[in-house]
UniProtKB/TrEMBL annotation, chain A:
It is an enzyme of class 1 (oxidoreductase). Residues 14-445 form the Nitrogenase/oxidoreductase component domain. Its EC number is 1.3.7.7. This is Light-independent protochlorophyllide reductase subunit B. The keyword Oxidoreductase applies. Keywords: Oxidoreductase. The keyword 4Fe-4S does not apply. InterPro entries: Nase/OxRdtase_comp1, NifE-like. GO terms for molecular function: oxidoreductase activity. The gene is chlB.
UniProtKB/TrEMBL annotation, chain B:
The keyword Secreted does not apply. This is Nitrogenase molybdenum-iron protein alpha chain. Keywords: Oxidoreductase. The keyword Oxidoreductase applies. Residues 53-456 form the Nitrogenase/oxidoreductase component domain. Coiled coil: none annotated. GO terms for molecular function: nitrogenase activity. Its EC number is 1.18.6.1. It comes from Sporomusa termitida.
Length: 450, 494
């Protein structure tokens, strides 16, 4: 994690940014920042430029309350100012839940936030806090820390597990630009198995549901990395087992996902299998009218995939195993430890199609772009007037990867943060329908000039 | 001693006694330099805003052949994702090439916070120089180095001999000032200390007809074109600084005959420096937003060069043409109530423009207050009356929501990131700052009118939203004094 001098155009923000994203996506939640004034504005502008035009929500952007720490508090301590801020927040702001989030500055100066929050909790006020100083890691860590705080301080202890109740997370609001659609896509499939799904952040979730999350029979984490800490903590505190899975895009991965969940919950295998069969059949029936043009227009592409762990793995599998494209290089831009890298490597080198892309772990997009050029050129022999460039190709990444796509003469689609050039409301790429949505988006890019 | 001899510029709270918290009727506050509004006056309840790092990045990311190296936590400067669209379009509008900005972060970790970030910064500067070969690297200090005591200037001094790029340390520790206009001083400070020549170096090369037109990232290319058009009618040569200006060309700032500010909130720090060190006089008075203001701005410049009569004729011609063009739009605006919220000078000059278009101005909010705006308050009082609220607020949408519920304007004009409160209340809105749109000069007045006409012709988007989307405030809050939480020199307003 520390083998870099700098991160180029980081494709995430800090722990506080991820925590703001997470809290502001909870139903009727009010984040309270214990921070200098600019952290909120920084995240707001980050959202405006990277999150598919999604900013704020019920209480996001510059409407979040904050203690606006200045030099005076740095010198004399900021707990008193925070106490005043929290008291007045409760008078002015309407929230079903309030979450105090700390920043680099207030953690370095050592303010005791717990001493401000705990007396209010004792009065029954729905307030909690998370220590999310920016130097604790990137936005995905901030997401995990907020979930941990929820399970530790907010979710009720259940006397017994409720069969058929599951929690679903692992998709970071806003930092996964397609979070709403991705969560909803999986939620609907799980509901078809007769499960009750608590997904925390969709418009169908509620604070009451989150309170009941301790009664879940299973926690389902849609990531090999994000939100695992919260899953381990929930297992420890609430005794709920968990499964983790890479972002399931399209029929192969989604079928495997449903089987995993079914096995973990001891569901009737026939029930799970029926759903898989029916959904897979439906997927291919819907795809059928595309077959003529897909084949006639030679729409197979070499693919370069660049993204966070979830997207790099999920999109690669879909393109290789379902769509029959040729992933050549996969760049993972997260800051990962060796164990996490091994998990991703294992996944991407075990594709059913036998496709074996080159895998690059690097935080800097321009290093990955260089690796793409090198990867292809070193394997190609020059033969007079005949050349075999990496073409036709397609770059699936973030809006920062437009330059690479341009250099390759390739199509380009932004799916992983930052997504500056698309507007996203509830589109998602998970599940069977998500695979179809991705095909629509990819091919629409290729044929836009028709 | 010149401020430019210091490692970092002073806070505007100290240098200009700027303040950010007050509220009362316009007539009670304006032109009295808001003496009751102390530099450190505060609120007992605050929402968040931005810090000086954000506007500073807006300028730094625009500079060609530059790299912006953020020294701080991983998230500081992720706002560049928002600014990048402006960098891409700004490059495209000027040179026909779409290009992303290049920004980096040292991404300080917990271990760095404990053991210090200086070694990492030194390595990052060298690595960035090798990889990108930029002509300048802005080395930006955010909060964390400011707290753990990293000596950014010391690192820069030590590493400079080992790199090709010119290194410009820029201090943007967000906890040190609430007046984010200090950002402009921070960037000018770095440019002044590093990219300008020795005193007297090129003073003899003056043409007698060259002006520095200062644009500190609040105007897009379309607005620059409008001002260039007017200045060229006076046969002046125009250099635009500092946005999108090549670092090698920055020294030409010292060789101009006059510097002209386009926003008095932005430029005084640099203009004083250019005058003191290179004897370049300056004008910092009107903002060329609004019909009368544009004329005054142009007239001032013309008179400096002895071209007053020529300017008078140009203005007369421009105003006549504009009036004819506005005539069909004005009936839509007549008697409609407008509320304006933005940076101080921009809010005031836009309010004046709205009055010129026939709106009734019913509320003004300004991000901060300092002495430069007194002239603008005088105009506003003369044109619009005195008994509507003036709110000095670095955003604080809760005060805005309270005011809007009470005032019920027909249209709200807010700064970028400042329109959603009004929108969720169902009020027609328009953005007051967006570098893709025209705002400045006669063209700006017309284009703004055209856009407002559109907004008012069908305000249903916000109207529909307001029926189903709720603001995050207690109902009881709307019954309170909107300025309840402001503490001032005279005690609470409550």
């Amino acid at each position: 994690m520390s083998n870099y001098n700098f991160v180029e155009r980081p494709r995430y923000t800090c722990a506080l940014g991820g925590a703001i994203a997470t809290v502001s996506a909870l139903p009727q939640a009010v984040p309270i920042l214990h921070a200098p004034p600019g952290c909120a504005g920084n995240f707001t502008w980050t959202q405006a430029g990277g999150c598919g035009l999604q900013v704020g929500g019920y209480c996001g952007g510059l409407s979040m309350p904050g203690s606006n720490i200045q030099e005076r508090e740095v010198v004399f301590g900021g707990a008193e100012r925070l106490e005043e801020e929290v008291r007045n927040t409760l008078a002015v702001m309407q929230g079903d839940i309030y979450v105090v989030l700390t920043s680099c500055v207030t953690e370095v100066i050592g303010d005791d936030v717990g001493s401000v929050v705990r007396p209010l909790q004792a009065q029954g006020i729905p307030i909690l806090f998370a220590e999310t100083g920016g130097f604790r890691g990137n936005s995905y860590q901030g997401y995990d820390l907020v979930l941990q705080s929820l399970f530790k301080n907010f979710v009720d202890k259940a006397a017994a597990k409720q069969p058929g109740l599951v929690n679903l997370w692992g998709i970071t609001p806003f930092m996964d630009v397609f979070w709403r659609g991705n969560l909803t896509g999986l939620r609907r499939l799980l509901e078809k198995l007769g499960l009750t799904v608590n997904s925390f952040f969709t418009v169908d979730d509620s604070i009451a549901g989150i309170r009941n999350a301790g009664g879940a029979a299973l926690n389902i984490v849609i990531s090999d990395v994000f939100g695992i800490g919260a899953a381990q903590l929930a297992q420890e505190i609430h005794g709920t087992p968990f499964v983790s899975t890479t972002l399931p895009v399209g029929p192969s991965a989604t079928s495997a996902f449903l089987s995993t969940v079914g096995a973990a919950l001891n569901l009737d295998p026939g029930l799970v299998d029926n759903l898989i069969q029916a959904e897979t059949k439906r997927y291919y029936n819907l795809l059928e009218p595309l077959i003529d043009c897909f084949n006639d227009m030679d729409l197979q592409r070499y693919a370069v995939i660049i993204g966070d762990t979830n997207y790099a793995a999920g999109i690669t599998r879909f393109l290789a195993d379902d769509l029959g494209w040729l992933p050549e290089v996969v760049g993972v831009t997260d800051i990962l430890d060796e164990e996490q890298k091994n998990v991703i490597t294992g996944f991407i080198t075990n594709l059913a199609s036998g496709i074996y892309p080159e895998l690059v772990f690097h935080t800097d997009g321009s290093v990955i772009a260089g690796a793409v050029q090198e990867h292809w050129s070193k394997s190609q022999a020059q033969a007079g007037k005949y050349a075999n460039p990496l073409s036709p190709a397609f770059v699936i990444g973030s809006s920062l990867d437009r330059e690479l796509a341009k250099a390759l003469g390739a199509g380009h689609l932004s799916v992983s943060f930052p997504v500056a050039n698309r507007a996203v409301i509830d589109r998602g790429y998970t599940g069977y329908r998500g695979g179809l949505a991705l095909i629509e988006d990819l091919i629409s890019v290729i044929i836009a000039g028709r | 001693m010149s401020y430019f001899k210091l490692k970092e510029p002073p806070r505007r709270e100290d240098r200009l006694q700027a303040c950010i918290a007050h509220g009362a009727a316009l007539g009670d506050l304006a032109t009295r330099r808001l003496q009751c509004c102390l530099p450190n006056s505060e609120r007992r309840f605050t929402q968040n805003s931005i810090c000086l790092l954000l506007p500073a990045l807006g300028t730094m990311n625009s500079i060609p052949n530059s790299v912006v190296l953020m020294h701080g936590g991983l998230g500081c400067g992720s706002s560049c994702h928002g600014g990048n669209a402006g960098v891409r379009s700004g490059n495209n509008h000027r040179w026909g090439v779409v290009k992303d900005g290049t920004w980096l972060s040292t991404g300080l970790t917990e271990a760095d916070v404990i053991s210090g970030g200086e070694p990492k910064l030194a390595e990052a500067i060298i690595a960035a120089d090798r990889r990108y070969r930029p002509s300048v690297i802005f080395v930006v200090a955010s909060c964390v180095p400011g707290i753990i005591g990293d000596d950014v200037d010391g690192v820069v001094e030590q590493v400079q001999p080992a790199v090709e790029a010119k290194l410009l340390p820029v201090h943007c520790e967000g906890f040190k000032t609430k007046i984010w206009a200090t950002a402009y001083d921070a960037v000018y400070h770095a440019i002044g200390r590093t990219l300008l020549p020795e005193a007297g170096f090129i003073a003899d090369k003056k043409s007698g007809k060259t002006v520095n037109l200062m644009n500190m990232s609040s105007m897009g290319r379309v607005d620059e074109v409008e001002l260039e058009r007017l200045l060229r009618e006076l046969e002046l040569a125009v250099n635009i600084f500092p946005v999108f200006s090549d670092p090698g060309a920055m020294q030409r700032m010292a060789a101009a005959d006059l510097s002209i500010s386009t926003c008095p909130t932005h430029d005084d720090y640099m203009l004083n420096h250019l005058q003191e060190k290179y004897q370049v006089p300056f004008i910092i008075r009107h903002m060329p937003i609004g019909i009368e203001n544009t004329g005054k701005w142009l007239q001032d410049v013309a008179e400096f060069f002895g071209l007053g009569a020529k300017a008078t004729a140009i203005i007369k011609q421009e105003e006549a043409e504009l009036a004819a063009a506005l005539a069909p739009l004005k009936p839509m605006f007549k008697g409609k109530k407008a509320f304006v919220s933005a940076g101080e000078f921009r809010a005031l000059s836009t309010a004046i423009l709205l009055a010129e278009l026939g709106f009734e101005v019913v509320g003004v909010r300004a991000f901060h207050h300092d002495e430069f705006a007194d002239i603008e308050y005088e105009k506003l009082l003369r044109i619009t009356g005195t008994d509507y609220p003036l709110n000095i607020a670095n955003c604080q949408p809760f005060e805005e929501a309270n005011l809007l519920r009470k005032i019920q304007p027909d249209v709200f004009l807010g700064h970028m990131n400042g329109n959603s409160t009004a929108a969720k209340m169902g009020i027609a809105t328009h953005v007051i700052y967006n570098t893709g749109l025209h705002y400045v000069g006669y063209r700006g007045a017309y284009e703004l009118a055209r856009r407002l006409y559109r907004q008012l012709k069908n305000p249903r988007f916000n109207g529909n939203i307001s029926k189903y989307v709720k603001l995050p405030y207690q109902e009881s809050w709307y019954r309170q004094d909107p300025f309840k939480y402001i503490e001032t020199a005279g005690g609470d307003l409550e």
